[in-house]
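User: Hi! I have a protein structure encoded as tokens and I'd like to know what sequence might fold into it. I'm fairly new to this, so please keep things simple.
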């Protein structure tokens, strides 16, 4: 498969992840407005948002997994590269560029939709504690979690996400079920972690919304690049060292 088509698949897949996942948080998480309908104050809530993120990955894994591998995430690309499942250099750089571009376009489309709501105030929209499903810590954490908690949280969740990816896509694993395991894994990650940082485990997903919020979101973006990538690399190295196939293994 030509690298151009792989990158296009990554672009489209990451667009869908950010549009579907962040869009569910922006439009549906707290709809209807609890001040207008106290009998149904939460919309789809955290559970619905978590499921939306998982479904975007599951659907794209079946749609483009055979084209690009369906990384949709720089931390996944770095992890698979460290785990010797993906080539580095130009391929890695272009995959990451495509993922970030897809996330930015999805965020732009979401912002254009949000701005079309009656009474939209861009200043008020950006001044919330965690607007536009933006990732943050400290004052910008949904639950008020500090920097240390955010770092530990993002590292552990990305580490476990890559362990799921490495294991479910291993040649010894049951074939055809990896997208289900990975999609459900991402759902679980969001069920655990939305209150801490809004959950990143994906630098591209963090970058798109942050660019439209600016200010503090850009200042805190470093964490959501550095920590998930380190967690992904650590997981891939751990998986290969602990569970990788050995030539002496009769089941290899």
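Assistant: Happy to help. Inverse folding works backwards from shape to sequence: for each of the 252 positions I chose a residue that suits the local structure. Here it is:
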């Amino acid at each position: 498969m030509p690298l151009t088509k792989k990158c296009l698949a990554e672009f489209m897949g990451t667009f869908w992840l950010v549009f579907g996942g962040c869009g569910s948080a922006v439009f549906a998480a707290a709809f209807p407005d609890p001040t207008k309908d106290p009998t149904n104050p939460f919309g789809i809530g955290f559970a619905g948002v978590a499921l939306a993120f998982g479904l975007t990955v599951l659907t794209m894994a079946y749609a483009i997994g055979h084209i690009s591998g369906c990384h949709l995430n720089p931390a996944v690309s770095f992890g698979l590269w460290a785990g010797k499942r993906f080539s580095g250099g130009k391929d890695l750089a272009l995959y990451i560029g495509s993922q970030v571009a897809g996330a930015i376009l999805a965020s732009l489309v979401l912002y254009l939709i949000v701005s079309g709501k009656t009474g939209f105030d861009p200043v008020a929209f950006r001044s919330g504690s965690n607007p536009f499903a933006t990732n943050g810590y400290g004052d910008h954490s949904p639950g008020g979690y500090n920097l240390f908690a955010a770092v530990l949280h993002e590292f552990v969740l990305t580490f476990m996400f890559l362990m799921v990816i490495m294991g479910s896509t291993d040649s010894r694993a049951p074939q055809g079920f990896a997208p289900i395991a990975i999609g459900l894994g991402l759902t679980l990650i969001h069920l655990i972690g939305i209150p801490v940082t809004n959950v990143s485990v994906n630098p591209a997903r963090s970058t798109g919304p942050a660019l439209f919020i600016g200010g503090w979101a850009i200042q805190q973006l470093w964490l959501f690049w550095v920590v998930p990538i380190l967690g992904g690399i650590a997981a891939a190295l751990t998986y290969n060292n602990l569970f990788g196939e050995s030539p002496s293994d009769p089941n290899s």
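A useful reference point when you look it over: Residues 16 and 56 are 6 Å apart (CA to CA). Feel free to ask if any position seems puzzling.
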